[in-house]
Structures are given as structure tokens and as C-alpha cells.
Amino acid sequence: MTEETPGFDEQQPDVPSGATSDDAEPKAADSPSTEEQAAPAGDTGQDVALVAQLDQARTALSERTADLQRLQAEFQNYRRRVERDRIAVKEIAIANLLTELLPVLDDIGRAREHGELVGGFKSVAESLESTAAKMGLQQFGKEGEPFDPTIHEALMHSYAPDVTETTCVAILQPGYRIGERTIRPARVAVAEPQPGAQTVKADESAEADDKESGGPEEG
User: How far apart are CA 63 and CA 67, in angstroms?
Assistant: First the structure.
């Protein structure tokens, strides 16, 4: 006889009705967990936040770029103004200095006209004139040129039969300019056409034309 030993009966897992134990295991493995189901929703929210941050960064970059470009333009304008003002101040300073030297240059000119510019005085005078020229000083005013009130100052006036317009017939004091800026007009004596001279010349011109054409036509 064989005795049954109590407590050694094999216990089988509870299996639902109509299903085997092999069917239960794949379902458990295939079913996603709660965390895995929630993951896609969390990733989408994170992507939206990143896109929003990227848009904000792009907007801030555009604003900073525009600010930088505006500052660069303002700085360039400032540099141009400073350079223009520096040049203007330099020109004014040179003009003031040369204006103070004009009486000395006038004395040198008169000494040259009278033959007194000799020896060491001549060398110093020529050196001074050369230095003034290097600084941009230009002398103007010649006899026979038309009178221009913007650069000439008439100190003497007369009439002359041999001029057809108001003309500078004598330079009493030369004029000076620096570039296009006149620092002293030329002081001159001017002559105007003699009254009636234009009428006489017109009649003479008409007579000369008649002679060339064979005389006036007979009526």
C-alpha cells in the first residue's frame, strides 16, 4: 500500500474559465503601462514649450539686431559730424591766422614793386609767402578782368571809352582766398563804358555792315 503524504499536492494557478495559463501571459506582456500611455502627451507639451521659447529667442534676436544697426548708424553719423566740425574749426583757425598776416604780405608786395625786396629781407619774405601758400592762401585780382562785386571792392570809379563793361583797371590791393572762401576782396579801381559810347559803336557797326553789303537799298 502506498501512503499519501499530505501537503505535497501541486497547486495550480487560477485560470479563468475558458482560458489556459499560456493565454494569460502574452496579454500581460502586451498591455502598455500607465506611464507609457502618458508619455506621448508629455512629449507634445514639451515640444510646444520649446517652440514658444524658440520664437521668443528669435524675436529678441531681431530686436537686438535692429538696436545694434541703429546704434551703428548713429555712431557713423556722429563720426561724420565730428570730422566735419574738426575740419571747419581747422579752416577757421587757419583763416584767422592768415588774415592777421595780410598786412605783412601787403608790405612785402609794396616793397617788391619799389625794388626794395633785397638781401635777407627778400629771403624771409619769400619764405613767408611760400608758407602761406602751403596753408592754402591764394592771391587774386588782375587788371583788365570784369568787375565782380562778390570778390572785388571798388574804391575808385571812372569812365573809359575802350571798355564794354565795368572793368578793373587797377589793383589797389590784391584779394585773398582759402579754397572757395574769400577772406579779403580785391580792392580795385573800376572803369565803366563812357555814356553814349555804346550808341556810337552801334552806329559805326551798322555803317560798316552797309558798306559791306554795297550800301543802302534805293527805294
Answer: 6
Burial of residue 43 (number of CB atoms within 10 Å: 0-12, 13-18, 19+): exposed
* Phi/psi at 186 (5° precision): -75, 130
CA distances from residue 206 to 93, 161, 202, 209, 216 in whole angstroms, order as listed: 58, 19, 6, 5, 11
Residue 2, helix vs strand vs coil: coil
Cell of 158: 571812372
* pLDDT, tens only, 167-214: 999 999 999 999 888 999 999 999 999 886 555 555 555 566 666 665
Give dist(CA 212, CA 61) in Å, integer: 88
CB 136 within 8 A of CB 113: no
pLDDT at res. 44:
82
pLDDT in tens, 96-115: 999 999 999 999 999 999 99
